[in-house]
Amino acid sequence: MWETVWQKLRTTVEIVAAERLQRCSQSIVAHHASANGLYLCTMHIRIGTRSSRLALWQAEYIQELLQAGGLTSELVLIETKGDQILDRSLSKIGSKGVFTQELEDQLRAGQIDIAVHSAKDLQSSLPADLSLIAFTERERVNDVLVSRDTTLSLTSGQAFVVGTSSTRRVAMLKHYCPHIKVVDMRGNLQTRLRKLDEGQCDALLLAYAGVHRMHYDDLIAEHLPTDDFTPAVGQGSVAIEVADTLPLDKLAAVRRLTNHEPTEVCVKAERAYLRRLEGGCSIPVFALATHTTEGQVSLTGGIISLDGNEWLRETFVGPPAEAEKLGHDLAEAVLTRGGDAMLQGIRAAL
Ligand SMILES: NCc1[nH]cc(CCC(=O)O)c1CC(=O)O
Fold it and tell me: Please, are residues 172 and 231 in contact by the beta-carbon 8 Å criterion?
């Protein structure tokens, strides 16, 4: 529904925003001319974010993109349930909005203009009064093995202990690396690294994007191929969420300065897949869309059982304009080829 409304509004909004910008620059010039002191005519954006270091990196990245376009902004730090509860695995807390609910409450209350999230952490369907208006250019999407011993390799056949809390990564490790022992490891990146140093595991399995953004590249022992370790939906992109009460000129300006259209197309295809499966971030489903050299979008995704034994993976290719249909078609194929039964088994076990 939002999509059609957005399409209709888009042109109007951009014209309004352009006119407003023009008026601003004229008035700045006028004030300079009359030497009446500086007349400030910038749009100010209140950015809601969690306060983990990775979340702050993301929010500051958005801040830089806005600043480059002449907008001022401030960060509003918000704690979520996912930040507070660290002693239970995410699949037990329930994935629904565990890292997002408090931010969404403040969007609705008008306390913040935008909420910044890892696209990966977002539920597949949002409430009707909220929407995602931008996805930033994607970082490399693959997972990496992180350790103080960078000679470690998952393919060496050597047995060691890997910490991860993601059901997708656990299942994939069981499938591809049965010689590896997997232990549950929650907490933000810094907490996990501390646990690694305390000896709770020999290595961690993490998204390259987060590791790189936190400057831990030196600890990368191995880059995992996306053909095997297909990433989670949205991995590597930062998403901006707003409430439908946000003034349209702000919406248009933020989107224009932060959205990366090729990434948006890919993440929308992936999210359409996830939505049809009604999967949250605790279900071991995966999908990755890329642009082909022929200008098409290729979407590969599937589902893996918690023990890693059963596994479905399909690829659909189509035009960028039909990205969401691709996601939907992929989901239908996966569901009818046995995914439905697998999902039921997974939901019952979690
Ligand atoms: N679930 C936590 C989370 N959310 C986003 C990232 C990494 C950065 C990204 O993919 O945008 C991570 C950590 C991880 O999976 O290693």
Answer: no
CA nearest neighbour of 13 among 247, 211, 327: 247
Predicted TM-score (pTM) of this structure: 0.87
pLDDT tier at 187, thresholds 50, 70, 90: confident
Task: Check whether 72 has a pLDDT greater than 90.
Answer: yes
Residues 6+ apart with CB under 8 A from 72: 42, 43, 44, 45, 66
Please tell me the distance between residue 62's alpha carbon and the centre of ligand 1 in angstroms.
Answer: 17
C-alpha Rg value of the chain to the nearest Å: 22
Q: What is the ipTM of this complex?
A: 0.96
CA 237 – ligand 1 centroid, Å: 9
Write phi, then psi, for 72 (nearest 5 degrees).
-95, 160
pLDDT reported for residue 39: 45
Average pLDDT value for residue range 170-190: 94
Domains defined along the chain, listed by start = 1-138+237-259 (3.40.190.10), 143-223 (3.40.190.10), 261-350 (3.30.160.40)
| Amino acid sitting at position 246 | L
**What pLDDT band is residue 83 in, cutting at 50, 70 and 90?**
confident
Buried b (16+ CB within 10 A) or exposed e, 248-280: ebbbbbbbebbbbeebbbbbbbbbbbbbbbebb
- Cβ < 6 Å from ligand 1: which residues? 118, 120-121, 206-207, 209-210, 235-236
Out of 54, 62, 80, 139, give the residue to mutate to test ligand 1, the one with the largest number of ligand atoms within 8 Å of its CB: 54
**How close is the Cα of 18 to the center of ligand 1, in Å?**
36
DSSP structure string for 58-97? HHHHHHHHHHHTT-EEEEEE---HHHH--SS-HHHH-STT
pLDDT-derived band at 91, boundaries 50, 70, 90 = low
Q: Residue 137's pLDDT is what?
A: 98
